[in-house]
Design a protein that fits this description.
The chain is mainly β. Helix content is about 15%, strand content about 45%. It has one helix at about 1-20; strands at about 30-35, 35-40, 45-55, 65-70, 75-80, 85-95, 100-110, 115-120, 120-125. A hairpin with a 6-residue loop joins strand 5 and strand 6 (about 85-95).
Length: about 140
């Protein structure tokens, strides 16, 4: 009985490792995120970790950070991790006056030597609305 349980645990751990293992790109750098679709209320903030996955040739590439173009309703900033190499935290802030709408945002990386960086497309949907009460 113990051997069946042990074998089941080993199988499960092996399966989880293979599911979460990321294969590096053949060329350049890829951005890896767990989630690319967001539904946020006006005034909300969401933080997401972004990891850089480098090809063998791009391991020594100088990386200058991340950027994203947004509409007036969204603010996106990136903070480089001081503890984990090639890791950034992306903060998405929805303006309090934002109206319900879908936004498509492309996150791109910046390299100094022209290495290819595969960007990530995010879908950010502003849902609902924030009602601000005036003085009664």
């Amino acid at each position: 009985m113990k051997s069946k349980i042990y074998l089941s645990i080993v199988f499960f751990v092996g399966l989880m490792v293979s599911v979460f293992a990321q294969e590096p790109p053949k060329e350049g750098v890829a951005l890896v995120m767990e989630e690319t679709n967001f539904k946020l209320n006006p005034g909300a903030t969401e933080e997401v970790e972004i990891r850089l996955l480098r090809s063998k040739r791009a391991r020594r590439t100088s990386f200058d950070g991340l950027q994203a173009r947004t509409s007036d309703d969204l603010s996106i900033s990136f903070t480089k991790s001081t503890d984990v190499p090639d890791t950034y935290t992306m903060s998405v802030l929805v303006d309090k006056a934002a109206s319900p709408k879908s936004h498509t945002v492309v996150v791109k990386g910046l390299c100094t030597n022209g290495s290819k960086i595969k960007g990530k497309v995010l879908s950010i949907e502003v849902i609902g609305s924030q009602i601000v009460k005036g003085d009664e």
